[in-house]
Amino acid sequence: MENDYPSVPLPLLYTPIESNYRACTIPYRFPSDNPRMATLVEIEWIDLFLKSVSSFRQRAESDPTVTDASAKAKKFAQRYTEILEDLKKDPESHGGPPDCILLCRLREQVLRELGFRDIFKKVKDEENHKALSLFQGVVKLNDGIEDETDRIENLIKGILAGNIFDLGSAELAEAFAKNGISFQTTCQNLMPRPWVIDDLDAFKGKWSKKSWNKVVIFVDNSGADVILGILPFARELLRCGSQVVIAANDLPSINDITYRELIEIIAKLKDENGLLMGVDMSGLLITNSGNDLPVIDLANISPELAYIASDADLVILEGMGRGIETNLYAKLKCDSVKIGMVKHPEVAKYLGSKLYDCVFKYNEASNY
Known about the structure:
Blueprint: H1 16-19, H2 40-51, H3 53-61, H4 69-89, H5 100-113, H6 121-143, H7 148-162, H8 170-179, H9 183-188, E1 197-198, H10 200-207, E2 214-218, H11 224-239, E3 243-248, H12 259-269, E4 275-276, E5 279-280, E6 284-288, H13 303-309, E7 314-318, H14 320-325, E8 335-341, H15 345-351, E9 358-363
Parallel strand pairs: 1-9, 2-3, 2-7, 3-6, 7-8
Antiparallel strand pairs: 4-5, 8-9
């Protein structure tokens, strides 16, 4: 991380020694594997990252903030491809053995070394603008659902629909470039329940007890994801009396929202009285997670977030990177939700699901 402070563990994470906490969900290798030979899973994931190099190069080429962007984008593609090929030949090269955290970090390091800080800035701004124009309609639709359990389910489906805006997926990046992605259409076309992991009914039962005083939400993408998915849900929590902490990236990575960008978005949505469509926002806090990747290791977060989150009753890890590819089986000392859409065939294969299936994994603290 390019931060001035040391990272610390999330206090709500069970002591790593006790829980054998490992951020990455999918086991890339086992102790019995030859350390000098890439495993089949490692090769599969290296190939996944290789597949996305061209889309990253195209984004970098059009970065107006970088001099000679085209030449530097070409250099990025060459250098990162060489690193990935090196890892296939020797998994211990470049700080390996590889997993999704290392593969993401190496990509960001190469981009930043060449002067690229936020190659998705333009598309993030465009999608934020579109989503802001739709926000009131989405909230009014949810507010019009009188039955609370139905309203909560609709809000959760909104989070899943918004989460499809993910330019880190080669398939979705291509689809987005051709057609864009409609939030309302995605809501209507979500995979029907039961999902591959579906604890939504248990979550709705706990919601009715109004037992969460403080909720921490680790957010994912810009645009529809955070504005039309997370913020209506956070507003509902605030309306129910919960304090809400939204933790967003410190530095840009793919099209993930940063905490600075999210503060600006909230300022645009609030009215002159500080209300979000009639709901008091004083219980909402936006904070820096300390993260600079589209995945997250909960053993390495910002001290600020660690302090703020220490007494939370519920932690939500949203998005495929934070809640599925990492931390799906993370054990927390409080209630937890891991929610996201399955957007990589490799993840679908591991979960035994279909592409674009949904994950809603809810654990009460007492279940561990």
